[in-house]
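Exercise 3.2. Students should predict the tertiary structure of the chain below and write it as structure tokens, then compare their answer with the key that follows.

Predict this chain's 3D structure.
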Amino acid sequence: MITFLGVKGFHHRTVAALAALAVFGAALTAAAAPAAADPPSTVASGDGWTVERGAGGYVTTVKLDGPLPVRDDAPELVADGKVLGPATESADGLSLSLTTTDAVVARAHHVTWAWASQNGGVGPAQPGAPGTGPAATEDSGPTLSDDPTTPGRYPYTEAVYNFGAQAMPLANIGGIRGEVEGKIYLPRSGHAHPLIIFLHGRHSSCYKSDPSAPTASGWPCPTGYTEIPSYAGYDGAGEALASKGYTVVSVGADAINSNDNQLAPDFGAVARGQLVLDTLTWLKRANAGQPVRFHDAATDRTVDLGEALAGSGLRASSLVNTMNFDDIGLMGHSRGGEGVVTAGTLNEGLAHPWAIKSIFALAPIDFTRATLPDVITTTLLPYCDGDVSDQQGQHFYADSRNTFSDNVLRSDIWVMGTDHNFYNSIWTPPYPNASDDWHSPDDAVCGTASPTTTRITAPQQFQVGSAYIAGFFELTLGGQSQFRPMFDGTGAEPPSVASFANIHTVAQQPASLRDDITSFDSTSPLISAAGTATAAVCADKNGRTVPVPLPYCSLTLTNQQVPYWTPARFAPNVPLNQMTHLTWASGSGQLNVTLPAGKRDASRYSELTVSMSPDENVVSGTDMTLTVTDGSGRSYSALMSSLNPSTVNRMPTSPGSTILDKIVLQQAHVPTSVLAAAGLNLRNITRISFTAGVGLDGTAGGGVFLQDLGFDTPGLGTPSVQARPTVNVAPTTAEEGDGPSTDDVAVYLSRPSTVPITAYLTAIGSVTGQVGLAMQPIRFAPGQTCQAVTIPATGDTLPGATPTTSYAMAVSYSSNAVLGSHDFAALVVREDDGVTTGNPAPPVGTQRDVCAEHAALAKPGALAVSDPRPTVGQVLTITGHHYRNGESVAFAIGSTSVGNAIADSTGTVSLTTTVPAVGAQPVAITAVGAGSGYTSTTTVKVRTR
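Answer key:
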């Protein structure tokens, strides 16, 4: 039995569905005693759920009462309160399943389901008493004189294009086809403009327009249903940008939304990312005046660009020379946010990458911990997000900021009082199937019915999104530097939102414009606590299932409350966000940072910055004094609350909330001109100190988290997309075995690197039990391209319910390389003790060197035959080599299967068969290993007589 968790449903040794949505609401519960009619492989069951024995684990299935609602969040199954991991949605949407080795399911009394960001069943914030929630702390910056949404000088055309509902094969999502549809915002100027692609997130694809139509789902929309054009929900930004001279294309992704939880191993990240790159490909053809055609399988007709634009006001010729492919930006919302980040990583895996310069991720999910280099990146996070309520997309900033030696601006933007949906007008009522995703209207902070709410109106939220999306691309692609203070940490707000928006920004400046004193992610003799203070480097939150070398940063808060340490769905045990936790018992507590000689010159920079947040034990707020000292003993001091009150005040909360009261690091800025005015020698800054203050509730003790202390000058840097190696994991198979053993998985690079590369391999599944033991760091030395990663396994001697069980593997959190399109793969375990129904799978043999097995798949071997010119009906002996010991090898002559044979201990396999009647000559003979997948071939000329 394999000692980690996964999800069944892999097909042809590729990863099939790994996760599914779970209905928000009441859990399914039942007594664990198996029903009398249960098959012999059932080990536990209840009302609406079963646990069956599988190869190396247990297959757990929960039946649902109706189709699942569509959300961007991910689902999990929970057994007796323990999270088992992501679940696969069935094709009809009426059941969820996963495969696990956690023995808790074999003894389960209750099996439940819940949204993943809800911490194993913890729902949205509970209603609080009106008036009891604190107001949001202010981070007011200057108001800009210019606004990104002020109409520009260009007239433009808005046009919908539609090549058909099933016009394009989609990547990594079960072989389905999707729509090539969307909206173009095209300036009418006669020359090429920067190109921006928008990608919406996961929302219902269709709504019931005919009340008499039966309940249905799927894509294309069934009869009686109308498509929901989510791509049309960003008109504010699209129109503003088009009027300023940017070509914007907003892409439809409803086919992905309708199938990702059932068919995509990564919930659709690669499918969405590749859709963006494929859109660039056909747009480039249109821009060059070349034919653009797609065959729509839904109507079985080929549609060209002119037909796709029919009635829109544009013709195919209208797009010629309108797009500058040297200036590309991407914006994605929710799962679309992860999608555009994935497009950025897939792009760097190409031999000739697209010139993607900037990416804006709006309320994104991040299920896999992808890191993105070389691209200016901003992540916008809504504080009242009721869908992706753990704000996991913050990882894009936290993970990428120190994993590459690149030179680009990165920033996080927290927008108070905004939900997940209202950034898209199509997801906003009264549009069909639209709703406020914050489900507690009476919540004191985020409820729309509360008199103390911080929520802004839907039109105001839409304007915030429009202004920040437009401003980002006008800055990063158009050089409109007046909008840089919106994104560089300055905290400036545009006039159209300044009167009502409360926005917090944290930024890391480009490498060429900063000098990092310390990231506070490791101990150093130059960092010391004094008085009653203690300082410890911490990481993660409690709940990890692997031994961790550092203390947890959080012990009491939920996933939703600690976005810096929210475990990713497909990388739950991969280390997260190291920083320093400073605590003190009285006002004598102090942390001193001594600057080494090479870090003392601040004269080239415009500011000193540090990121800080109160810890979970601070009730409302605390304060600290920042002191900067030079080599002559002159010093400057200021209260952190005077520099930015958000650094020392807790974020807003409401009574009983398990979502709010979040730990969110904020940034303080001290201009170096202020230090100079205080008499300090900017060329010789020798020490920076943090001295404890009194809490707002009068307590003497306190605690804060610290990160990223350094000197910098705000700027964009130089985006420079380059071809980088990709990290991937190869599928493999193994026999279950009868007792303790190991299996191997190959983690490989697409090409050698001249610098070291690191990543993590995770067995997808439960965040409890033994799954964590399969999480391992992977390090590639320069020149190394593959590593065999060993995973513990435990066999048994009992029959299972299915011939094979698949366990998903994923790579994540890479440095100096990007995740490839094969960042997920399956370890398929053959049930070798018989099955309770059906026939067993053919033997897969003993694994060889899995790196060699993977490499061999690209180099077919040669078969030997006893007669190269056999006659129909003649007995022919076929021999192959380099197979696994004990694996079944399937032979075929032409398209006719002629039998199977078992390879011996030397890897040699031989089959004697009768030559069948065949058609055209010459005829191919193939031999494919059931375990290794290794293929050998030869050709013969078959004579009839």
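Discussion points: Residues 269-287 form the longest helix (19 residues). The radius of gyration is 29 Å.
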